[in-house]
Amino acid sequence: MSVVPNTVALERAERAVFAHDAWVDGGWQRDVLLRWDVSGILTEVTLGATPTADVAIAAGPLLPVMPNLHSHAFQRAMSGLTELRGAPADSFWSWRTLMYRFANRLKPEHIEAISRHLYIEMLKAGYTSVCEFHYVHHQADGYAYADPAEHAARIVVSAEQAGIGLTLLPVLYQYSGFGARQPLPEQRRFIADTDWILQRISQLAQAYPGNSRRRYGVAPHSLRAVSPESLTAICAGLHALDASAPIHIHIAEQAKEVEDCRATLGARPVRWLLDHQAVDQRWCLIHATHMSDEEYRDVAASGAVVGLCPTTEANLGDGFFDAARYFAAGGRWGIGSDSHVSISPAAELRWLEYGQRLLHRSRNVLASPTVPSVADHLYAGALAGGAQAAARPIAGLRVGQSADFLTLNTEHPDLAERPSDSWLAGLVFSEHGAAPIRDVTVAGQRRVSAGHHADEALALADYRAALAELLA
Fold it and tell me: Are residues 76 and 60 in the same domain?
């Protein structure tokens, strides 16, 4: 007599994993059983469990995976192309001119190829979610495509193909500087009004509905690029569409921006924003590099997240964010790879701490009295803040959160023979060859196995073809 397999039991087993070690609620726990539902949401996290024959055993310790809260995907293709001094005083502003020239060459197929390759790189490096701050909306002449959401849709499709979670943030961009200065010719691809942005969000949500792996928000680019009236209108319009949707904004990245804001609006950028908008948990303030003592305190009290991108901020010469001061005030924060000169979450955390060591001339600055391991403290903070900024259920190995986790390779020289309480320190503060990451799972689906993504070769070929056209 033939045996009919118990399909329900098999499917349930495939939606489970047992790990001898897993990082749960900020610490390593032994013998952890995870189960998730068909949508990839964790339904069970059991500590001290016993492995059973029908459940796979993880090949190493399981670690919840870091959200990337700030990305400009197309800038991945610029990496290494701007490291030449073109003026006696090279700066963010001269880099921005080069970026505009590059952005004006992009075609829809380039956007898709670059994004897909980048998102696979992110997965392999240990990001399973990305907040895409998307502002290349139109054709090079500034006119809309036949499908006005052409580029945004390419990003959504690229994320789906790669298997990464996405929070898409269409950008409101109106002006070239404070005082409603007319846009520069090279900015015409970015320019949109409030209604156009809100229409695109509605269009995208209809074509590609939101779920636990996909979310929509909005990004007023910066105080210099939108009017006070438009900032209020876009926030109100988004609230009408989705009252809990995230709002991201570049702010106080450069000292010149602070000076120009004071001259035009009569206040520093962060102070003005706090005084004129209901800044709360929905908001993510990208960079916030140049703040006063009062602003550090009041941003922390608001519940907003500060989005820190240390490798990009160093590359652009932005300056030091005083994380020690902000952490002491209880501020929330996360990390992003921004321009993608680095695609490693460990590098962002490492350089965040190293920046503080240089600033304060001390070591292990960002540890806490209750968590003396600086790597553990950083990882927990970035995980929580990144999940809040993404506005998706990706806050770790907890019931109700997405089954997003990576499998560490404890045979890697940076982790081998070390006790579990130093694994995160080995991941964050050591860099010797490939990262000690074996597998990456997103919403319960294995996306990276033994360090490889199934589509990485094809995505790389498409990326190289796009790059060849862009640089011809």
Answer: no
Question: Where residue 50 sits, what CATH number does that domain have?
Answer: 2.30.40.10
- Say which of 298, 338, 404, 439 is annotated catalytic: 338
Residue 6 has pLDDT above 50, yes or no: no
**88 & 214 share domain:** yes
Note whether residue 471 is domain-resident.
no
Query: Is residue 236 within a helix (H) or strand (E), and if so which, with residue range?
Result: helix 228-241
How many domains are contained in the chain? 2
In a domain, 300, yes or no: yes
HEC string for 32-94: EEEEECCCCEEEEEECCCCCCCCCEECCCCEEECEEEEEECHHHHHHCCCCCCCCCCCCCHHH
Among 138, 221, 287, 290, which one carries the catalytic annotation?
287
Could you write out the three-class secondary structure of 357-378? HHHHCCCCCCCCCCCCCHHHHH
> Is 90 considered catalytic here?
no
Per-residue pLDDT tens digits for 160-207: 999 999 999 999 999 999 999 999 989 999 999 999 999 999 999 999
The helix (H) or strand (E) run that includes residue 273 is helix 269-276
Which residue is it, tokens 């020239």? Answer: 101
Judge whether 110 counts as a catalytic residue: no
Q: Does residue 199 share a domain with residue 164?
A: yes
* Distance of alpha carbon 198 from alpha carbon 185, whole angstroms: 24
Instruction: Name the nearest CA neighbour of 346 among 451, 431, 440.
Output: 431
Range of the domain at 20: 7-64+401-456
Is 218 found in the same domain as 87?
A: yes
Cα gap 177→257, rounded to integer Å = 9
**Judgement on whether residues 302 and 211 belong to the same structural domain of the protein:** yes
pLDDT of residue 356: 97
Tens-digit pLDDT profile for residues 101-153: 888 899 999 999 999 999 999 999 999 999 999 999 999 999 999 999 999 99
Dihedral of CA atoms 409, 393, 156, 139 in degrees, nearest 10, equals -110
Phi/psi of residue 159, nearest 5 degrees: -65, -40
State whether residue 461 is helix, strand or coil. helix
Domain assignment present for residue 1? The answer is no
Whether pLDDT at 78 is above 90: no
Q: Domain for residue 269, yes or no?
A: yes
341 with 365, same domain: the answer is yes
Shared domain for 47 and 80, answered yes or no, is no
> What confidence tens digit (pLDDT) does each residue in 417-433 have?
999 999 999 999 999 99
